[in-house]
Amino acid sequence: MDIYQTENECDFSSEITDNVCNDSSFNNYDDVVGAGEDQQLQVLLNSAGHAYIAMIMSDSQLLLIECPFKVGSDPLKEVFLQESRRLTILWKNNDERNGVVDVSSLLDGDDIYFFAIYKNAKIRVWSAVQKKALVTTSVSSLTANADPIDADTFGVKTSLTDDSIIVTFLVQMKDEAVFFVTRFVNDSFDVLINHSLANKRVMDFMNLQSAKEDERCILWVITREAFDPNSKVSTFQPYLLWRCLMKMDGFAAWEKVQPAVNDQCLDELRFAFPKTLNAIKHRIFNGECYSFDVVKRALQVACKRGPLISVSYNDWSSLLTYVDDYVNSGHFVQSYLTPEDTSSLLVLNLVTNSSTKASALKFYESLLRYCDEFQEAGLQPLGLWCSPSLDLIGVIQQCRFTIFQKGDAQMKTIIRTTACGDALHRCFVAANKFFKNEERITKIFNDDEQLVLLSDFNENYEHLCYIIRRFAEHSPIDEVQLNPVHSDCVKASFTAGFLSILLRHRLLRRFKFANLIMGMTKLFLKLTTNVSKLSKSQAFSKNLQERTASQGLWETITRTHDSTIHQISNNYRIMWSSLSYRLTKQHHRLSQDGSHRLTVGQALFQLGPHLVRRLDAYISHSEANDGGSSSSSSETKPLYEAESEYTTLIREIIDGSIVSLWPESTLLTLPYFLADKGYAEALSNYCHDNEPFISELAFAFRLYQGIAYCIQGDFDRSYEAFNEVLRSIRDYDDAFNIAISRLLKEPIENNRARSHSIAEYLKLIMDIFRIYNGPMHALRVGKLIMAYADAEDPILSKVYTDLFKLYLTVNDFNEAVSMIRKNPSMDERVRCLRELISTMILKLEHRNLVLLDYGELDDTVAEILEQECLASFLKWDSPVYQVAFSFYSLRYLYAQAARLFIFYSFRLSTEAQTKAILEKRCTVLATAVGAVQCTDQVEGLAFELIGAPSQPNNSAQQPQLIRQIYPHDLCSTLSKQDYNVIIRGEKSPPIEGVIIDADYLRREHLKVEARLHLLEKYQSLRNPPTMPNEIASECVQYKLFDYAFTIIRTFDLDVYNLLEAVAYECIYMDHEDQQDQLELEARLDSYSNEIGELTKEIRRARVCPNIALPEWVTTNRQFVDNAQHYTMKPHWKILHGYLKYTLQMDKTNTKAIRVVAHKFLEYSKPLPDWLAQLYNENNFGDMIFSYVEFGEYDTAFDIIDEFLEQQIKVVATEQEKYECLIPFTQIEQLIVRAENSADESNFEERITSTQNKVFKILDNFSNFTKAASMLN
Per the database record, which ranges form the Nucleoporin Nup120/160 beta-propeller domain (predicted)? Predict the structure, then answer.
């Protein structure tokens, strides 16, 4: 924003401007009026909500458009407002004479009036409701002269007062602009005031009602201005703003408002920047004099490069960084160094520092010129704007808008108490020249001018001394009562920017005013010295006595107030420069909301509204008078005009901000805000500007200076600054304790704060170091706290907590645990342990977490770990479970470790059973089995699971938390556990729940492992079964025979399907081997007889097929007994192992052998020798029956014959002791089946032979029995 002043109200009435984006424009109404284009429009709403739009078209016709409240299917109503129904051709021929020039609208009751003025000086008042002209008159009727008026153009504006309609007409002539302020009453215009503005071309005007009783209205006017080539100011604004206060008695006077671009020109900024280069840089990059686009375009031209780097809009910091980089680049050297310097650079590689500064000044002067040229194009005024509710008025331009602001009431009051305004003005102008010319009086004034100027000083020395004294006494003090601002509008970007620029403008003006006063004092002394050296002329002798008296009073005043004014001036400069500092991105907290593009002043009002205070001048002066602080305070009481609530708020905030932000205030509000928000560079600059510190604020400033160093990362200097302040703790320092209280967010009453201890101060410093990533220095401060603090100090608990966090930050976990154990607060211990565990798990410090010595806190750590494991948000693969298990195992708490992993296994069962989940479950269950086995087996450790274990379910109703399935109503060694550890004794009561012991866990592990292998076998995505019988069936299907057999044994299932499947695979492999062998034999037999039989045998041995074993043979080796049957084929060993272990489980169950044998007989394959032997040894009769059932009569007869031959020998040996174990039923069935077979004739001899053998055995046994009985 910019600020500019009115000429006739000294230096304290002002307007402000703000840069705005020129991206929006009014839409024309081509969709309404066809091909027409509008030049001007007026829009108003009546009480019914209907909108009426009056548009001046490009052909100067007046079009009225009526828009209903609710948009329906009916089109908008369009009416051309014409007084007579002439032919169109006549209208067009008379267009130049009858066209509309300007129109203004006004709502009066339910009707809307449109006041239109025409090129032929006609005035018509149109009714929007009646759509006809109510009044028709001419401009000449407003004047006493009835002759036609020769005017270039006309204008009309309306305003509404409490009792009438005010209509203002503009008659623009060649040499002047005449305004007629009229009252529209009874369909006629009553002229109230007419006033002219000579030699000006009006671009826009506005008539506003005045709040003063003696003023009728205030007329605001924009006039076009031409550039003055003799002007010493490089900036130019192509318009001027005027205002005219029209009194009730008819008096009116024009006041010219100085152009806004002159507000921060170099002439003004040199007061704040002694060096021209700094003033130029501030003017270009302060974001107020020029828009961002203008500076960016100017840089592109001045840097003589291609397109600039891409920077976000309004990011002034990046733009300034780019310029600094360019000035330090080789491209700048080639473009802006003089030819002599360039030659020196090429030859000697050396350029003097003065040459570099001169080149930089040349570059910035060129950049400033480009900015002025580009900015000038955007300063064209679009019109006046006003906000009656906010009581604001200004000018809208193409690149920004201005806001008129009333002046500094306090400074006006000081000036108005003096007389001789013209002489006073001459003295200030002379002081300004004297100050700008580095106080060289002979350079700007000759001898005669010095005599005249000294005469002015002598004539007005009393008034000048009064001003000096009044200005020195106006310094803000802490005792003034300030009130907080209870308004959210302060945080709004518009109000924050408005307050910022208005406050900085006021500070800059007061700073300049203070410099002018100091310049006057020095100028008077210089004049006195110089004039004394001149020849004593008559004029000099006449004024000698008067000069001597004035000099004595002047010296008295200057001795009394010179240092005060100098300090006031310096304070205004510090405040202005600090609030004008543009923030940059802080590395410790990157700003994503664009706050780094703000100035400190904008940030203060927008981000720190709780620090903003308002000052009611009337209350403050009343309190001052009541307290008797100044006998003349009533003389300087500021006078304020009637104003809106918003204007009052702005004024009181500005007055209050000057007091609260005063650098000598013990509150030190501005450095606190900068420290709180972390704006290190701005805080460091502010502290540097205040050096040397005054004694009352030295320690507080040193504290803020240390904070600035800390934010910037210079921890050594920061620690040094904090350490210097330490000695001031014992002696109460008001400003220092207020600073500590504000940093601790403690309330401050009556600008006083409580006294703080050394421990509290060091705790604050430790927090600052910790916040800004200085852990090592924070640890040093923490050790100091433990040295200074008492054992009962409640702050120790927080200190130990902070030290723990610091040690945790630097990964010193042993010291962190030590701080936890020393902390006197148990609650803090638990909180710190939680943070320690979560942090170490996050940092993957699992091993260190388990190995740390927690001492008496072991149980607390265990409980925290289990609570973490029970958390519903914990992921299934979280390392917390493993950490907790390791924690228990390392401390030999195997029961707790087993219980934890049992819970973990059930937790995993609630997840979708993917491969990763199943693998994890396998590992967890196996580990749980190991933990259970590590317990004392004599005690019989087991777990009782309350309720039924969860079964995997894919439905959405399945509970996800294992804690919801297993209640916590049983006692446990630790709180909130799902399982109860039971030590089984001899007299232990029976257990009603499900016992979870090692066998249970093994069974669960077996199922999960089998499901995992099934998942690997699946060709498509599917879930393995969960029931044991289904798992075994699937394992058989996918040839996982070992898993199937293990599940069958474990869960006591039928093994017959497994044996059938394995037998089939074995038969199939033998069949394939046999086919390969037959093919080989056939090929060998086909050879000619030329080769001998020996050669054939050799080839047969060489080409014997070596077929690779299938996967199921190589993987299912768990039950193979390699110690027996060395010659047995590998696949037969698998089947043999299953049969062997099956018979070991139940020796009487020979069905398993029968199932295998039937599978062989089914495919007409002979039983292997080992199988036949096994079958014969376990159930010979069943084997005979199996052969008979499958029609293998020959084989059955062979086996029976062999058996009977053996029995004949046994009978002969054992005689009467022989046990008749002959399978008569099976032999009988065999004989019957053989007799009924188709080829009965082939079995007659074998039937007879078998019968004879049976009879022989029976006869021999009978004979031996009888003989034995006879002997007995």
Answer: 45-405
DSSP per residue, 1064-1127: HHHHHHHHHHHHHHHHHHHHHHTS-TTS-HHHHHHHHHHT---PPPPHHHHH--TT--TTS-TT
Distance, CA of 437 to CA of 257 (rounded, Å): 27
136: helix, coil or strand? strand
CA-closest candidate to residue 32, choices 48, 50, 49, 54: 54
Is the pLDDT confidence value at 1250 over 50?
A: yes
In this model, does residue 538 exceed pLDDT 50?
no
Tokens of 74: 């009916």
Contact 133, 124 (CB under 8 A): yes
Identity of the residue numbered 1148: T
What DSSP line would sit under 238-254, residue for residue?
SEEEEEEEEETTS-EEE
Residue 998: its pLDDT value, please? 81
Which segments of 67-153 does DSSP mark as H helices, in order?
Answer: 88-93, 95-98
The gap between the terminal CA atoms of the chain, to the nearest Å, is: 143
The pLDDT tens digits of the residues spanning 128-153 come to 888 888 888 988 888 877 677 888 89
872 Cα distance to chain centroid: 27
Pair of tokens at residue 328: 């330090």
Q: How far apart are CA 282 and CA 573, in angstroms?
A: 14
Q: How would you class 1141 by CB atoms within 10 Å of its CB: exposed for 0-12, middle for 13-18, buried for 19 or more? A: middle
Contact 508, 272 (CB under 8 A): yes
Provide the token pair at 1178.
């376990």
Question: Which residues partner with 117 through β-bridges?
Answer: 102, 123
d(CA 742, CA 747): 7
pLDDT at position 668: 92
Phi and psi of 439, rounded to 5°? 60, 30
In 3D space, the residue among 361, 337, 365, 336 whose CA is nearest the CA of residue 351 turns out to be: 337
**Rounded to whole angstroms, how far apart are CA atoms 468 and 514?**
9
What phi and psi values does residue 319 have, to the nearest 5 degrees? -65, -40
Asked if 824 contacts 788 with a C-beta cutoff of 8 angstroms, the reply is no
CA separation for the pair 407, 413 (Å, rounded): 11
Q: What pLDDT was estimated at residue 164?
A: 84
Decide if 991 contacts 944 (C-beta within 8 A): yes
As a whole number of angstroms, the distance between CA 838 and CA 820 comes to 15
| H-assigned helices in 72-192 | 88-93, 95-98
Residue labelled with tokens 């709403």 = 45
Single-letter code of the amino acid located at 224 = R
Query: Rounded to whole angstroms, how far apart are CA atoms 985 and 988?
Result: 5
Position 1084 confidence tier, pLDDT thresholds 50, 70, 90? low
Rg of the Cα atoms in the chain? 54
Q: How far apart are CA 857 and CA 864, in angstroms?
A: 11
* pLDDT value for 941: 59
pLDDT tens digits, 549-563: 566 667 777 777 888
Question: Does residue 180 sit in helix, strand or coil?
Answer: strand
pLDDT value, residue 1210: 72
Most confident of 748-752, 764-768, 984-988: 764-768
